[in-house]
Amino acid sequence: MGDFLPYGRQSISEEDIEAVVGVLRGDWLTTGPAVGQFETDLAAHTGGTPAVAVTSGTAALHVAYAAAGIGPGDEVVTSPMTFVATAATAALHGAKVVFADVEPDTGNLSVAAAKAAVTGRTKVVAAVDYAGLPAELDELAGVAHDAGALLLEDAAHSVGGSWQGRAVGSIADLTTFSFFPTKNLTTAEGGAVVTPRDDLLDRARKFRNHGLVRDRAEQRYPDEGGWHQEVHEFGLNYRLPDVLCALGSSQLKRLAEFKKRRAEIHARYNAALADVDGVATPPSRPGADPVWHLYPLRVLDGRRRALFDHLRGAGIGVQVNYIPAYWHPVFEDLGYRRGLCPNAEAYYAQELSLPLFPSLTDADVDRVADAVRAFFGA
């Protein structure tokens, strides 16, 4: 049967280990010089857009919505074809989440559906770069800005990619990244918010650190003493420690290599499965330069679960990404009902993520493709 193949995994080098050990031997474990270095290093991959490192991709979303100032009475329009955190973090700020349907072939937020969903209460339109393919960012920015809202790009899958020649992170008002081990680079747990706007950057930095105000010029009671700090708006501790930022800076040196290998694997799957009746290979879009985080195969004719069980039985750790966010009981209990976004539900019913990570060998890819072909008798 061969070794078990997970659908994703980290790629750690000796250089990564040395970078972490170097911090452990130093004076700083948490908020020290490696944080600023990682933020600077990350900005080199976002078209120079400043970054705020945080503890996870979920934290990045929570911080980004805080920076946008959302609260009760506000609405956030987003895609249901995402991990639940994209919507949950908006709901935790008290906003109403409005789910808009996706494009039937890419799983990305539909521009027409987003446009139909915005109202005078919409404060953020949150697009998701599903599988690493950037959403239709220019048109979605137009939809958001015409409604007086911000565009947030949930780029948990797409760090290192670009859209129409511009780096992911340089286009939306707010962009969030995830550095979980299965993602395009890792800090173990970690994430970041990037934004070109100074006001949003300041709010993100404050929310990451309890909302603390240490600048005397901004304080209400600046003459209390040299120790004084104030909280003007509530925040949380979402600080990413030095030891993990050092890992991130080291990983960023190989992001181009990771991207190249992911593209090779994606193309190898496409070639191997293009002629298989019963599946559809994932599309791209003109002007997209993705970092393929997932390989989302579409399994037709209601056979997704059978193929999932077949491949898992063969030691191939396929996954399904994602259950439509509003199907989770927490949203069901708020009154959301199945049938809300038909394209997303149809996409979910067919989607199966094949293993995709940089250390996957060509032989591994062929093993997976052969197992899929054997299931369909191809």
TrEMBL record:
One of its GO terms (molecular function) is transaminase activity. SUPFAM superfamilies: PLP-dependent transferases. Keywords: Aminotransferase, Antibiotic biosynthesis, Pyridoxal phosphate, Transferase. Pfam families: DegT_DnrJ_EryC1. InterPro entries: DegT/StrS_aminotransferase (IPR000653), PyrdxlP-dep_Trfase (IPR015424), PyrdxlP-dep_Trfase_major (IPR015421), PyrdxlP-dep_Trfase_small (IPR015422). Its cofactor is pyridoxal 5'-phosphate. Gene3D superfamilies: Aspartate Aminotransferase, domain 1 (3.90.1150.10), Type I PLP-dependent aspartate aminotransferase-like (Major domain) (3.40.640.10). CDD domains: AHBA_syn. Belongs to the DegT/DnrJ/EryC1 family. This is Aminotransferase class V-fold PLP-dependent enzyme.
